[in-house]
């Protein structure tokens, strides 16, 4: 991939300022080399202790049908009083994008780096991925939903006891292009600290 000199940043900044989430997403999906770029961007996230806590499980093609079945199974388990047909729509979530990436934090216990910092690092990796997805001309959506917290989902994805599922990135092409999204002014969230509070 081309490297960028620090001064030539207007385009990069424009990517950050124009990213937005898209749902659902259509074909085309990023191809293998574009996915590689997206994963490489993830690995540029800050990472205290160089623990490399991120893991990504790529789900695409017909594997999404299996994921969909699992989503229906999980919904049935959560609400067994309802017939399976009432939960079938849950399975369609897996087909809401041509590529789905499970975001996993693989936590190291034998370290001074607190767990929260390892989780933040994977969150930062996910953000880099969303920005890379956008920079490549695709769209993304980060979703957790109740399924991310189900042990059955963790087992199905091959997670171990040290892993946390931080959600799924849905990736593809936004069918409707750009949406108008109003963003609040950052002033509301920024204060300048000058001295200790009494
Ligand atoms: C960890 C995480 C989990 C999320 N899970 C969901 C979700 O399950 N469902 C949902 O509608 N939005 C979810 N969101 C929010 C969307 O990804 C998205 O940020 C939101 O729709 C606002 O769109 P924007 O990114 O264009 O500002 C989640 C965001 C994060 C950071």
User: Could you give the distance between the termini?
Assistant: 51 Å
- Corresponding CATH architecture of one domain: 3-Layer(aba) Sandwich
H-E order: HHEHHEHEHE
CATH superfamily of one domain: NADH Oxidase
Low-confidence stretches: none
The CATH C-level name of one domain is Alpha Beta
CATH topology of one domain: NADH Oxidase
What small molecules are bound in this structure?
flavin mononucleotide
Question: Main beta sheet: strand number and arrangement?
Answer: 4 strands, antiparallel
Cα shape: globular
The total of beta strands comes to 4
- In terms of DSSP E residues, the strand content is 15-25%
Give the strand order of the largest sheet, numbering strands 1, 2, ... along the chain: 1-2-4-3
Number of helices: 6
Average pLDDT taken over every residue: 95
Evaluate the radius of gyration: 19 Å
In terms of quaternary structure, the protein is single chain
- Specify the structural class: alpha+beta
Relevant terms:
NADH Oxidase; 6 helices; 198 residues; 34% helix
Describe the protein's topology.
Elements: H1 10-18, H2 32-42, E1 54-60, H3 63-78, H4 88-91, E2 99-106, H5 115-135, E3 139-143, H6 151-156, E4 163-172
Antiparallel strand pairs: 1-2, 2-4, 3-4
Helix pairs in contact: 2-5
Bound molecules: flavin mononucleotide (FMN).
């Amino acid at each position: 991939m081309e490297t960028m000199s620090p001064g030539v940043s207007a385009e990069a900044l424009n990517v950050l300022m124009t990213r937005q989430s898209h749902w659902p997403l259509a074909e085309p999906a990023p191809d293998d080399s574009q996915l590689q770029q997206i994963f490489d961007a993830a690995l540029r996230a800050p990472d205290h202790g160089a623990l490399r806590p991120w893991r990504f499980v790529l789900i695409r093609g017909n594997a999404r049908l299996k994921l969909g079945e699992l989503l229906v199974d999980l919904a049935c388990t959560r609400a067994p009083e309802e017939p399976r047909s009432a939960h079938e729509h849950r399975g369609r979530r897996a087909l809401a994008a041509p590529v789905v990436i499970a975001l996993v934090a693989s936590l190291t216990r034998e370290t001074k780096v607190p767990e929260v910092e390892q989780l933040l690092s994977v969150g930062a990796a996910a953000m880099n991925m969303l920005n890379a997805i956008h920079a490549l001309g695709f769209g993304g959506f980060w979703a957790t939903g109740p399924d991310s917290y189900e042990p059955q989902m963790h087992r199905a994805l091959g997670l171990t006891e040290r892993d946390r599922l931080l959600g799924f990135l849905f990736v593809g092409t936004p069918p409707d292009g750009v949406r108008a999204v109003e963003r609040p002014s950052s002033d509301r969230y920024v204060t300048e600290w000058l001295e200790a509070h009494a």
